[in-house]
Amino acid sequence: MTPHRPVFLELWRIQLPVPGVVSILHRISGVMMVVAIPLFAWLFAQALASPEGFAASAAFLGNPLVQLGLLVLAWALLHHLIAGIRYLLIDLGLGVDLPTARRSAWTSLIAALVLTVLVAGGMLL
Ligand code: HEM
């Protein structure tokens, strides 16, 4: 590897094609879920420890800001699931040509957003 590789760090001027956007969001959503695991483990342990702990966990989860965070995590799971299945299909050689790859990238992006809106609707009921 050459020690003087060109570096372009103006991230806002890099115009990723939509498969690139889906790819970076897949990575970000995976990391978001991993980071959330200790929080859920702690909440679960607290809820099981005592009736007061259960009430505290329920109150925490009832906070609107926390619910907004849960909705973002729901998006992360949905995007990661749908884009992940897309990658597994691509790994099998399906939909590798550029037009199909672009269409499936748009489909993954929009499907995850639509399903997240449905989850938000379910949370409001
Ligand atoms: C729900 C079903 C899931 C599917 C279908 C799925 C699929 C995938 C696939 C195919 C990859 C490799 C992507 C690549 O080739 O670059 C991947 C990476 C990854 N997944 Fe999942 N995954 C799922 C659930 C999860 C969950 C629940 C978590 C976290 C708790 C997670 C965390 C990650 C992380 C951190 C990576 C590495 C991301 C990167 O650095 O590019 N995944 N997943």
SSE order and pairing:
Elements: H1 18-49, H2 51-62, H3 64-91, H4 98-124
Helix pairs in contact: 1-2, 1-3, 1-4, 3-4
Bound molecules: protoporphyrin IX containing FE (HEM).
Specify the number of helices. 4
> What's the total count of β strands?
0
The profile of the biggest β sheet is: none
Mean pLDDT: 95
Computed over alpha carbons, the radius of gyration is: 19 Å
Salient structural properties:
125 residues; mainly alpha; 79% helix; 0% strand; binds protoporphyrin IX containing FE
Please explain how this structure is put together.
The chain is mainly alpha-helical. The chain has a domain of 63 residues. The protein is 79% helix and 0% strand. It has 4 helices and no strands. Helix 1 runs antiparallel to helix 2, helix 1 crosses helix 3 and helix 3 runs antiparallel to helix 4. The longest helix has 32 residues. The radius of gyration is 19 Å and the shape is elongated. The mean pLDDT is 95. The site of protoporphyrin IX containing FE has 11 residues, from helix 1 and helix 3.
